[in-house]
Amino acid sequence: TLLYTIKFEHVDSVMSELTKDHAGPLLTDGPLIDKLMMPAGNFPYSTSDVMLKNITPDEKRIINDFLYLWEKSTQLFQQLRHIPQHGMYNWQLHFSRTFDSFSKLWKFQQEHRRLLDEKYGLQRWQIGEIASKIGQLYYHYYLRTSDTNYLHESLIFYLAIRQRDYYCDKDAGSSRELLTLKNTKQEVLIKKLRYYARFLVVSIMLNKMDLLLELKTELASLVELLPESHTARDVNEWKGIVNEVVSFRTALCNITVTKCDATTLTMPRRILPDQLVLPDLTLSPNPLKLQHALIVGTIPGQPKVTELSVDMFRIGTTLEKSHKSLSNVFNCKKQYLYKPTPVEVMGKLAEMSSAALNNSTQLIYLSGTNVTYSDKGAAGGMEVYTSEGGMHFSHRDTIDVKFSSRYSADLLHPEDLTPFIRIPTLLIVEAEGRSSFNTVSPVFRQPVVVLISPRLLPHTMQGDNNGSLMTLFLHSPLTAICVMCNTQHMSDVHWRQGNSLINNLLSEILTIVSCSKYTHPHFIQLLDDAFVRIILLRFLFFEAVLHLHTAFKTDEYYPITVPCLKSFEIGTKPSIRRGISDIAALLDSTVLFST
User: Fold this and answer.
1) CB atoms within 10 A of CB 63
2) Each residue of 27-66: pLDDT tens digit?
3) HSE, side-chain direction, 13 A CA sphere, residue 508
4) Helix 530-548 and helix 477-484: axis angle, to 10°?
5) Model pTM score
């Protein structure tokens, strides 16, 4: 395919060059990267900008050719940011041109390294900047395709720059920064800080928690080196990134699984082959495939890194297969929006709708704060909205309910989604409080399924803002059950046994749903896609567990499905109750379940 043609024809040839002497990592940019992580500083664009001594015309031509290639490559790279995520624009061709340009630039500087060092004053950190841009292309490609193979390639670049100390002067000592000029020292330090910040994002995306701790420590020590010329606000922003990493890792590592040798098991985040529940046959005549997913996070105070909250990370990785597995399953294209405006959400939905293919489906994940109101406000005697509330979207961490009226520009109403459900849709709403999104209906006669989190949680499970319970259940059911049972440690043997029990239960739930005459046709149609099927089955399992847990006693503690699935009453099936009881026994928590 074109993707791998670009990868192997252009990038792998560059990688072979990188590993010879100067290898560089990526500096990631994209929707998940905030303003602190934008690239800063470029090379001079002409020989008049540098001090040249005893230079011949041929040498001057070589230097100018190098600067031209750098400028051309940089311009192509900058243009990638302006290419829309969706639509008919041939972005793959532009990536190919950018890869090719940087490949030529790298080979050129390899061939003329000595001249560029002696006559132009090319330094190691500048060579690293060239290599880092190549690495960034890998990350951008991952954002475009959700293909985790490219995310792993980006990690290779990051590790290479760390191993080779590109932002240190090896000739002057392994830990001595480039001290040629005061401005150069500051520029290199800022570049190094940005490099670490981006490295942290990729490490989180790939679940490299041990590496994450090392990088956090190194980043914290670098922040202390910021010169006095930087404002207190700049220093606090960098310290804030360090604190974000600590909080984010704590939220993700809410259970410790220990091996027999006392080492800690790194739990997978993405879908593994044994977690893929396959139906015995195609459930609908025209199988649907998940093409796009919009993931929105607005819950105040939830741990985050840059513009990726814990809930967003969990649901995003749930929509990806594990590295080099499930070759017949393809990841959907994802868009992340952190604390957007309702208009921005609708804009992304419009882009997704315009790029939708036949027999495709979309997933919309909304996490935020529900706002309801009892007034039936109208304008000019006409009812503006039929719903009684919406989800509050705001950059502020607190919500002034007094000004959250039905006309607030910060509210996303269920009716706002109506124009964009012309294609099959799975809508997931994660928010405490009364939700009005149960009014979303398939007005265009396309399958629409809505999953809504419980209005309340028992008081014993409140106060922990390390992620939402329903989203955690959709991401890792066994981890969520451990949280419900206040289990913080377990052996890897029990961990494997518990996941095996859950996989068997999900297969049984699939049989119940697919064979029941009460199953709504919309569920049948959406079950054909592997990722949607896993989410739907985990949601039904989530509902069954809540009904059997003694702390969840009334309807306000239970999730809602549209269309309604109560007729299944999966939790009443003896085999399901026995399976949940076996899981509770593994956690020594049978007393918490009425099985």
Assistant:
1) 22
2) 333 333 332 233 334 555 455 445 555 788 899 999 999 9
3) 18
4) 20
5) 0.86
